[in-house]
Amino acid sequence: MPTEIDRHEVRRLVGAGAQLIDVLPAEEYAEEHIPGAANLPLEQLNRATTASLRRDAPVVVYCHNHR
After folding, report:
1. What is the DSSP string of 29-46?
2. For 8-34, how does the pLDDT look when each residue is reduced to its tens digit (9 = 90+)?
3. Torsion of CA 7, 12, 14, 16, to 10 degrees
4. Are strands 38-39 and 19-22 parallel, antiparallel or unpaired?
């Protein structure tokens, strides 16, 4: 179930082992992203692309469109 969280909670979760996923297109991810974030573009999300995610850790998904 998606839950909106603030940046302090993102830091806490990532510090505790959560996976950080940026869903912007690859070009935008290459321009700017949070260090340590993996890129899984939203339009490419499916069972195959999410298979690489660990099932034993939370997943923090973010998208920041600065345009």
Report:
1. HHH---TT-EE--GGG-S
2. 999 999 999 999 999 999 999 999 999
3. -170
4. parallel
CB neighbour class for 62 (10 Å; exposed up to 12, middle 13-18, buried from 19): middle
**How far are the Cα atoms of 5, 6, 19, 34, 39 from residue 28, in angstroms, in the given order?**
22, 22, 19, 12, 10
Structural element, H or E, at residue 23: none
**Residue keyed to tokens 């979760």:** 13
Q: d(Cα 12, Cα 45) in Å, to the nearest integer?
A: 25
CA distance 15 to 10: 8
Query: How far apart are the C-alpha atoms of 33 and 41, rounded to whole Å?
Result: 12
CA atoms within 13 A on the CB side of 63: 10
